[in-house]
Design brief:
By secondary structure, the protein is mainly alpha-helical. It has helices at about 5-25, 35-40, 40-60, 80-90, 100-110, and strands at about 30-35, 65-70. It is built from five helices and two strands; from the N terminus they run αβααβαα. It has a two-stranded parallel sheet. Helix 1 runs parallel beside helix 3 (about 40-60). The longest helix has 17 residues, at about 5-25.
Length: about 110
């Protein structure tokens, strides 16, 4: 994504993830997050609540359930520092700005 992580980027990315899971026949996305400000913001919480109400009422789509890691507990977050560093090195281009399609492609290639 372009720019620094913010709530609006989160609310743009999550529907894409949910859509991919829906295509695979999944009903729930379990999202394990740390307490970064853009994960716990009012904007993201409102968006998640609204989306999950819509999914429940319509019976269509993928619910997004969040589980937050306790604050100040990096030992519980297995992606810190072991995996996150490797993922960053694979996905990030220090000398170039990546567009959304390129970033998503690189991320998908790394994750899969």
């Amino acid at each position: 994504m372009d720019g620094r992580p913010v709530s609006s980027i989160t609310t743009q990315c999550l529907p894409r993830c949910a859509e991919k899971l829906k295509e695979l026949g999944k009903k729930v996305l379990l999202l394990i997050e740390d307490n970064a400000s853009w994960h716990i913001s009012k904007e993201v919480r409102r968006w998640l609540g609204s989306r999950n109400r819509h999914v429940k009422n319509s019976g269509e789509g993928v619910r997004i359930v969040t589980c937050f890691l306790p604050r100040e507990s990096p030992r519980l977050n297995v992606i810190e520092p072991k995996k996150w560093v490797h993922g960053k090195r694979t996905v990030v281009e220090p000398e170039a700005l990546l567009g959304v399609p390129t970033f998503l492609h690189k991320l998908g290639t790394y994750v899969l």
